[in-house]
């Protein structure tokens, strides 16, 4: 019964116009891709197809857009949106860590541009049963791919105190990770922590009063940490970027939009390592003599304008970095 009602709700949302997706840093990203009309482009995080739509509009009949997502709603919604523009696209359900294999299945060796819009899609927050939001009561889930087995419930109720502390500290940069982990273990010994609001209450009990009075939600860092742990987001990103760099054609570009320091650090370091060329000690080479494979298009990340921040709350903390294959 629950599965059937969930499927009906998913279909209702897909077919309705109530879901509004506002892509972050849209113009900056599209400009950054430097799109060729006959090129091949990959949106590794298709979501609501905001960025994908604008890419597809700029392609001619010889161009191709490949949209990748691991979320069933994104696959259905994105396909519906793109089909109204043209048929020069393919949508694949996959985790972007499998980017190389996805392209291999499509007999594609190189592409002209790749985009990553990292983090959680708007609809994943808005559909409360997904369990991503600390503002709506729902079962603890947080899986981007609902076919995966590990949920936030599993992490909260089965990880040891030391493992929980590590997750909150490393993935959420939570200062009070130790206290939160200790209280979670104490509460789950009485009964399992099953919902988002139950977890929020435990987090609130673990924090000093002045932290709870702050403008940011007291559970924000914990929810971020759990989401990253459930979906293995940081490891997946690092591995995917490595493949993405090797898949670029000459003058091809990667645009990566991140929303917190952990993601941005991985993008920054991956791009820097690609640009830097290790010259053996004792070899006298001028800068002009060093042959580089890549160049940074953005020496510093591009951030949203004040106007975009006013129009789109999700744009806060967004950073766009761009690299090009020479």
Count of alpha and pi helical runs: 15
What strand order characterises the main sheet? 3-2-1-4-5-7-6
Please state the structural category: alpha/beta
Determine the N-to-C terminus distance.
55 Å
- Principal-axes shape call: globular
Give the second-level CATH assignment, the architecture of the largest domain. Answer: 3-Layer(aba) Sandwich
Average pLDDT, rounded to a whole number, is 91
Summed up:
By secondary structure, the chain is of the alpha/beta class. Helices cover 45% and strands 13% of the residues.
Describe this structure in words.
With 326 residues, the protein is α/β, with parallel strands linked by helices. The protein folds into two domains: 2-117 and 234-325, Rossmann fold, CATH 3.40.50; 128-231, DNA polymerase, domain 1 (Orthogonal Bundle), CATH 1.10.150. The chain is built from 15 helices and seven strands. The protein has a seven-stranded mixed beta sheet, with helices on both faces. α1 packs parallel to α4 (72-83), α8 (161-172) packs across α12 (220-231) and α9 crosses α10 (196-205). The longest helix has 15 residues, at 261-275.
